[in-house]
Amino acid sequence: MNLNRNQLAKKRIAVLVADGFEMAEFTVPVNALRLAGAGITVVSLRHGRVRGVNLHEPAHKVRADITIDQANEADYDALFIPGGFINPDLLRQSAQARNFVANFERSKKPIATLCHGPWMFASAGLASGRTLTSWPGTRDDLVNAGAIWLDQASVRDGNWVTSRGPQDFAEFVPAMINLFTQSSYSQEIRSNNERAESSPQRNEPPGVVLTALKWMPRPSFRGFALGLLVGGLTIATRRAGSSRAQPRLEPRREDSAIAA
Fold first, then answer.
1. 104-127: pLDDT as tens digits
2. Which of 84, 178, 248, 250 pairs with 11 at a CA distance of 20 to 30 A?
3. Is-above-0.85 flag for pTM?
4. Is 158:186 a contact under the CB 8 Å cutoff?
5. 217 in a domain, yes or no?
6. Is 215 helix (H, G, I), strand (E, B) or coil?
7. Is residue 6 part of a domain?
């Protein structure tokens, strides 16, 4: 993926997150935006450091720059909403977060989101008549909200770009940056979505997620294994240090004389 470092120079991007955002869905797109020259402001529901996750497992935290009650759509050129199972579910229950997203839409400013992020469009009353994609598990919610849902890596509809998830970064990230570079948007601008009806439901959930959850060890087991590893390394280090510090004993003269 080739990025022009000045492509988004002077662009101000709001990144809307709550606790439980998918870590990869934050770091990969946000780092790409920064490499393209954009200024990033992390907007969250609360002050402090916001927790990321890998699937359902706790991951690193990201510091929020401002809270949603301090955020004003007029201060930004575009909006990015990461996904995850938990993050959009918390955001969609916040009236301030819904209004923040709706204000971007009213101003026809670009919005990019992926995975479960398009839930925000449904809850903010913006999905009807729009064409988009998302994590396949949210397909029915969006269709019931009036959207046309396409099972594609990336879907562009006017001032929106949506994607199914991290597996589609190679298409989503360039599409997002291209969207954010434009200065005007048309409802008629659409890519790969000529059909007037939604893609069908999936017949089974994604195998990669099922496999990851199946073989992921319990936190208690991981903690126990980590404790054994740390304890073993500590004991080994102490023994090695004790061995190096042990003085070399020379035989006493009288012992040598007796031996002779």
1. 999 999 999 999 999 999 999 999
2. 84
3. no
4. yes
5. no
6. helix
7. no
